[in-house]
UniProtKB/TrEMBL annotation:
Coiled coil: none annotated. It comes from the Bacteria. Pfam families: PhoU_div. Belongs to the UPF0111 family. InterPro entries: PhoU-like_sf, Put_Phosphate_transp_reg, UPF0111_domain. Gene3D superfamilies: Phosphate transport system protein phou homolog 2, domain 2. This is DUF47 family protein.
């Protein structure tokens, strides 16, 4: 750990933890969407929209603190990258739920539940990891596991695309479903971006 003579602004740690906890809320709403009747999805989408707005507020709070802090716990560009990637996760999850409602999708293709399970696990790991930024301890397993989960998400995504293009669905339905599974894949990528940023921070601070 690098030795510092000046005090550091430590509220960032709490704000990153709060942002990650909100992502767990979003992942639970995604899981809820899976088991919901189509008529119940609009209400879930409203709660997801509220969670996404809370995520935006958390991100803006981090940026405001960054702009008003003279000394930061780690490099400013890394704080910005971490906050932005956490925000991206929430945006993609909210977009996926919104698309399901807007497109009046009756039944999601088999395999989407595996995508969402991967996202839920990545959300849990991310929420567990954020408090450890204070000490930079026990983070290696986190980013290794999130990268493994992203690879798993890639495989699930490719299988879903193959399923969508097997001739079972009409062209319009394929376009709708593909957009949903693509956005969920982008959420998995965003989790990996968070993990990679945490790894970069840990390497710099070691």
């Amino acid at each position: 750990m690098r030795f510092r003579l000046t005090p550091r602004e430590t509220s960032f740690y709490d704000m990153f933890a709060a942002s990650a906890d909100n992502i767990v809320t979003g992942s639970k709403l995604l899981m809820e969407l899976l088991g919901a009747e189509p008529s119940a999805r609009a209400e879930i989408a409203e709660r997801m929209r509220a969670a996404e707005h809370a995520g935006d507020d958390a991100t803006h709070a981090i940026f405001h603190q960054l702009n008003s802090s003279f000394i930061t716990p780690f490099d400013r560009e890394d704080i910005y990258a971490l906050a932005s990637s956490l925000d991206d996760i929430m945006d993609f999850m909210e977009e996926a739920v919104d698309l399901v409602v807007l497109y009046n999708i009756e039944e999601l293709p088999k395999g989407v539940e595996q995508q969402i399970e991967v996202l839920a696990r990545a959300a849990e790991l991310t929420a567990e990891a954020m408090p450890n930024l204070r000490t930079m301890a026990n983070l290696t397993e986190y980013w290794i596991e999130v990268n493994r989960l992203e690879n798993q998400a890639d495989q699930i995504h490719r299988k879903l695309l193959a399923h969508l293009f097997n001739g079972k669905y009409d062209a319009i339905e394929v376009l709708k479903l593909k957009q949903v599974v693509d956005v969920l894949e982008e959420a998995a990528d965003a989790f990996e971006h968070v993990a990679n940023t945490v790894e970069t921070i840990a390497v710099k601070e070691s």
